Amino acid sequence: MEYRRQPQSAWELLGDIGYAAISVWKGLWLTLRVLFRPKVTQQYPFRHHPEKEWRPQPGYRGDFALIADPERPGGTRCIACLACQNACPDGCIHITAEGKGKERHPTAFYLDAGLCMYCWMCVEVCPVGAITTTRDYHNVTYDPTKLIRDLEDLKARGEGIAEPEVPVAPEKTTLASGKKKGGDDES
Amino acid sequence: MSDLLYTTGAVLSEWFIRLLTGWGVPADWAKIIAEVFAWGIGSAWGLIVIMLAALVFIYGERKVAGYIQSRLGPARCGPAGVFQSFPDALKLLLKEDIVPAEADKVLHWLGPVIFLVGSALAFVVIPWDRGRNTAALMDANIGLLYAAAVSSLAMAGIIVGGWGSNNKWSLLGAIRGAAQMVSYEVPLLLALLCVVMQAETLSLGGIVENQHGGLVHWNIARPWLWLPMLIFIICSIAEVNRTPFDLPEAESELVSGYHTEYSGMKFALYFLGEYGNVYLVSIIFTVLFLGGWQSPLGNPDPLALPGLLWLLGKALVFVLILMWVRWTLPRLRVDQLMAMSWKLLIPAGFIALAIMVGVVLAGVA
Q1: Whole-prediction pTM value?
Q2: B-chain residues within 8 Å CB-CB of A35?
């Protein structure tokens, strides 16, 4: 910070007063402009503005979906191998299944999103890429039971999704020394 | 309306004097007692104004603060949060009133009371509207002096509360408040003196009458009063202890300053008094420089609005300016605060006074 010495003459004093007045006015002008500018706050979820909505990046872990299989009309890719149910650390997936071999499919698929910790183990373990997270985050509710997804719900959410949300490896931004890789090498 | 108030007051006063003399009180004494009672009743009206104003200003302050910081401010209680003040007030009423064990019980109680009474008393001399006796509840011929003196009582409230709390932060805040008050009262009175020389009266009603006839006749349109106006604005911010002069309660340094040890209703009284003082200086600014209750379009008012509306509306604009300044400028250091008053504002006040003397001698005013 620059240290301002005491004014030595009346002219310097007047200059300081003028400098102070200009500084004060700059600040006031800035706050006045911000006062009338549109505000950044969005009252989500009470006032919903779809056009201002936040769009998550690829790899975002939102609500769950089961991806439909074109070869099994009305069905999903899920072969009910229970791998996800067994892999889930929270035990939030419950599957009942019927059929043998290629006919095997889930008859009930419950996923408690309120219990889920979004560790993505179910997505990673799935041999056929049936279960995935979506980028839909509008799942706020007052009633926790509404967070339990059933088969129909998951199917509906999977409509239009071709492939599971691919886990995006975090960019290797830091080296072991903590320095940033690439970019501003000089700094 | 104002005539009715005045007539009712006169009738009540006469009845009271007759009652007292009927009890054997000497007539002179009865008059004095009746006068004292009348001032008390008048300041009750001041209290009502303060409470209503505080309800509006607490909401306004938070909303302005939010907007300046690109937030929305209170938005959940009623449409755009307009009812936010009521739960706030209710919370203060219901909170436990804690008195520290080592505090001076009497002074701890007395502090907020003096603070609020000081600002309520000053509302008595404000001319609210046109009409008989210029519709101040008591239009004293020393109105301005009275208002300046009585509003200084607030500082006594701060010192008493800060001392009575028996807390070092409170005491530091109170001492800072006292120093600030002493320093800023001087340039403030110099600025007031210029206006008094212009109007040639100390009565607030008289000062308003002096600005008769629309915007061009107001004191704000008289260039030789611009310097006093600037001094008045700066000093009034210091008098009501708001940022950038909020050293008595500097949150980041003194916890909460003189009201650190207060909670519940007593804190609410301090809070009310603060907003009461804010509105008081705004109204006094309006009376001194913005023509009081008069319409800017000239007299009689072409819009035929009540003078009370003009007065409160103009004062509201000044309150908004105070809020704008508060949420823009950072707090001064103590030495900067003192230097600003003694090295800058007081000399500027004397210069303004000299200019005013010159204007009066030249016969322009």
Answers
A1: 0.76
A2: 64, 67-68, 324
